[in-house]
Specification:
It is a single chain. The chain is α+β, with helices and mostly antiparallel strands. About 20% of the residues lie in helices and about 30% in strands. The strands form 2 sheets. A 5-stranded mixed β-sheet has the order 1-9-3-6-7, with no helix packed on it. A 4-stranded antiparallel β-sheet has the order 2-8-4-5, with no helix packed on it. A hairpin with a 2-residue loop joins strand 4 and strand 5.
Length: about 230
């Protein structure tokens, strides 16, 4: 009987994990304008990539941003996929007490909905800059949906909007767009060096149910075969 249990568990495990995976999609070349984000231009910069060959549905998404130069408090950006728009950056640090936002230069960060601290107020706690002056670490996306050219006080009252977790359950294969804009002139020229969309997938509900059914079918078949044997044979 222990053998039967082991076989059934293995069968179920294979049927479930076959539909899941971890995918690191990193993009670092072929960018429009060589990745340079126009200063003081709401039209901004964007890059669209097609992701394919990923099984299951989205369980979680994190975004890696490597942006050099510029003035962090001037940057606005979002990730768009399948009709979902997630605000990643919205003039970090801007508030009624800080009209221009944070003056650090660049990001080398990961944005994840599982992070505790929001990127918008990263200077309110512990944070680190690398040798190039870029902010490092893992942060929750800004999420603030207010227009980046709104009055500073608007950033205080506007709650966080759609997070990366709103992408969960979608098919990951499709067209993804990263948009970034430097909305205030001055402060240097930001440039996208690279960015990544890391996707963890989980089994689709239908496939999960089929996997469980298949495991139970295997268990039943083996039980019928082994029930005809003697105890000594088992």
């Amino acid at each position: 009987m222990n053998t039967l249990k082991l076989i059934s568990v293995l069968a179920l495990g294979c049927s479930i994990t076959a539909q899941a995976g971890v995918y690191d999609n990193t993009f670092s070349s072929g960018f429009a304008n060589s990745g340079n984000i126009p200063a003081g231009n709401l039209s901004g910069w964007s890059d669209t990539e097609t992701i394919s060959g990923e099984t299951g549905v989205i369980g979680s998404v994190s975004v890696n941003l490597d942006i050099s130069g510029g003035f962090n408090g001037s940057l606005y950006g979002y990730l768009e996929y399948d009709g979902v728009i997630v605000t990643l950056l919205n003039r970090v640090g801007v508030s009624s007490g800080n009209s221009f936002g944070y003056g650090d230069s660049g990001f080398d960060i990961t944005l994840s909905s599982s992070a505790v601290n929001n990127i918008h107020s990263y200077q309110s706690g512990s944070y680190s800059l690398n040798g190039s002056g870029q902010l490092t670490g893992t942060w929750a996306p800004d999420g603030n949906t207010v227009s980046p050219i709104s009055s500073p006080s608007s950033f205080n009252s506007n709650p966080g909007g759609t997070g990366l977790n709103y992408l969960n359950g979608l098919n990951p294969d499709g067209t993804w767009t990263l948009f970034l804009a430097d909305v205030v002139s001055g402060g240097g020229a930001p440039q996208v060096i690279s960015y990544g969309i890391d996707i963890t997938t989980v089994p689709e509900p239908v496939n999960l149910a089929l996997g469980i059914f298949a495991g139970l079918f295997i268990l039943g078949s083996l039980w019928r075969k082994m029930s005809g044997k003697t105890t000594a044979d088992i």
